């Protein structure tokens, strides 16, 4: 597979690529998936759950809310595992389907094609846009360009608002932005991401894929002879050349119509072999099949096919070590995520001893130690907790052992532990604190404990 990979770029980096609008099987799939991705991104912040935004990264309060589950900084290992698992799943898919993520799910691709759609509606087809570029400035050219950039700006602003709405509640952010009453930081971040969207999807486009995205540089190491990628069948297509329909010819099936290049969002010629610039969007497949149909030739001169299949070698991909390795790694990461979630507690407890006095002796020959219990309610509900201590025949808690903690609140709760000196066996004895929900005292389902030390003069 590595022999077919080149780094040839057909278009000059300085030349503007005008993408020809293409319809077909793969473009319907891409458009559907891109549309679902954009709609999900735009409207997810407006989903409410239990009276609050369902998904919210609340940076000011250092919490991530996901449908009633709250993750605190201590729980962010779960997010780390999720990102690692997503990476292995992407690698696993790449071994089988190549850069299918780039062509059908990447936000850069989705927003680029959205901006191209707007450009096509206002400025016309590919040839019309090229002609408009070369034409001198006129009123017609001005209002077409002004309308295009205005719509691009609106889409970019909505994108910036949607992104920041995952960090600031959407029902607060949108009215503030569009009534110009948002604070400086909200405005700064919204307009920053709006500008990034405008530049990336409107101006840079393929340059992001070619020069900024690291995935294009290392994805080829995941390929093998079983990987299905967008491939031109050289043995069938060459020698290429133009001809009339139903004309008898000794040429190959490629009619050299150049449509595969015109529809390519990165401006490459797939006939030159697999190139790192190819994002596997399938546009060239649809364009080529359209040409093959007109000439009554068999379809799939360009198709998703592996090197082994192209050479009529049947070798199951399940025998690939990369396929097995990435698959096993993905399953392991998913298992780690499930175990991490299952072991997560809704209560956080941190026991801090009084560091100024190791112990104090009372008038009735008892020893007391002071502690501060930092108890956090990690849920989004008001909870009722009770403190208990092990070895109650030795230790005694002084004061109220029950408290109510508000959603997401951390309570610093001072407690004193007493012990009779004659019942202690050493100057440093273990003591274990337990925090439990009052509603679960019988079932013992929701509780957390932490050990500390009890000091005495022995």
TrEMBL record:
* Entry keywords, A to Z: 4Fe-4S, Electron transport, Iron, Iron-sulfur, Membrane, Metal-binding, Transmembrane, Transmembrane helix, Transport
User: Which residue ranges traverse the bilayer?
Assistant: 33-51, 78-98, 150-168, 180-201, 323-342
4Fe-4S ferredoxin-type domain span: 245-273
In terms of Pfam families, this protein maps to:
Fer4_18, Fer4_5, FixG_C
Q: Which SUPFAM superfamilies match?
A: 4Fe-4S ferredoxins
Source organism superkingdom: Bacteria
PANTHER family from the entry? FERREDOXIN-TYPE PROTEIN NAPH
Please give the name of this protein: Cytochrome c oxidase accessory protein CcoG
């Amino acid at each position: 597979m590595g022999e077919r990979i080149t780094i040839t770029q057909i278009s000059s980096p300085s030349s503007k690529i005008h993408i020809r609008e293409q319809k077909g099987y793969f473009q319907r799939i891409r458009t559907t998936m891109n549309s679902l991705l954009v709609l999900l991104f735009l409207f997810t912040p407006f989903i409410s759950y239990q009276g609050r935004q369902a998904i919210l990264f609340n940076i000011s309060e250092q919490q991530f809310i996901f449908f009633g589950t709250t993750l605190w900084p201590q729980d962010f290992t779960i997010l780390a595992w999720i990102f690692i698992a997503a990476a292995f799943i992407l690698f696993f898919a790449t071994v089988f389907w190549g850069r299918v993520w780039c062509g059908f799910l990447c936000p850069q691709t989705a927003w680029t094609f959205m901006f191209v759609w707007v450009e096509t509606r206002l400025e016309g087809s590919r040839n019309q846009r090229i002609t408009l570029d070369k034409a001198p400035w006129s009123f017609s050219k001005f209002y077409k360009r002004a309308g295009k950039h205005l719509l691009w700006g609106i889409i970019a602003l909505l994108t910036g608002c949607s992104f920041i709405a995952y960090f600031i509640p959407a029902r607060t952010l949108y009215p503030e932005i569009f009534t110009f009453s948002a604070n400086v930081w909200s405005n700064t971040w919204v307009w920053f991401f709006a500008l990034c969207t405008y530049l990336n999807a409107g101006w840079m486009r393929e340059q992001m894929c070619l020069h900024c995205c690291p995935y294009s540089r290392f994805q080829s190491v995941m390929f093998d002879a079983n990987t299905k990628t967008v491939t031109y069948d050289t043995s069938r297509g060459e020698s290429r050349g133009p001809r009339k329909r139903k004309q008898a010819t000794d040429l190959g099936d490629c009619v050299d119509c150049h449509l595969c290049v015109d529809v390519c969002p990165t401006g490459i010629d797939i006939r030159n072999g697999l190139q790192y610039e190819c994002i596997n969007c399938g546009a060239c497949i649809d364009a080529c099949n359209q040409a093959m149909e007109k000439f009554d030739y068999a379809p799939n001169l360009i198709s998703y096919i592996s090197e082994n299949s192209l050479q009529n070698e049947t070798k199951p991909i399940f025998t690939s070590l990369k396929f097995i390795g990435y698959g096993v790694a993905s399953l392991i990461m998913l298992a780690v995520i499930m175990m991490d979630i299952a072991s997560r507690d809704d209560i956080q407890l941190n026991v801090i001893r009084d560091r100024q006095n190791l112990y104090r002796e009372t008038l009735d020959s008892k020893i007391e130690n002071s502690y501060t219990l930092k108890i956090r309610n990690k849920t989004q509900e008001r909870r009722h907790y009770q403190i208990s201590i092990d070895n109650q025949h030795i230790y005694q808690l002084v004061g109220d052992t029950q408290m109510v903690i508000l959603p997401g609140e951390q309570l610093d709760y001072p407690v004193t532990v007493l012990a009779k000196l004659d019942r202690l066996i050493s100057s440093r004895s273990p003591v274990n604190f337990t925090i439990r929900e009052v509603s679960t005292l019988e079932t013992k389902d929701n509780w957390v404990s932490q050990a500390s030390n009890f000091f005495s003069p022995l």
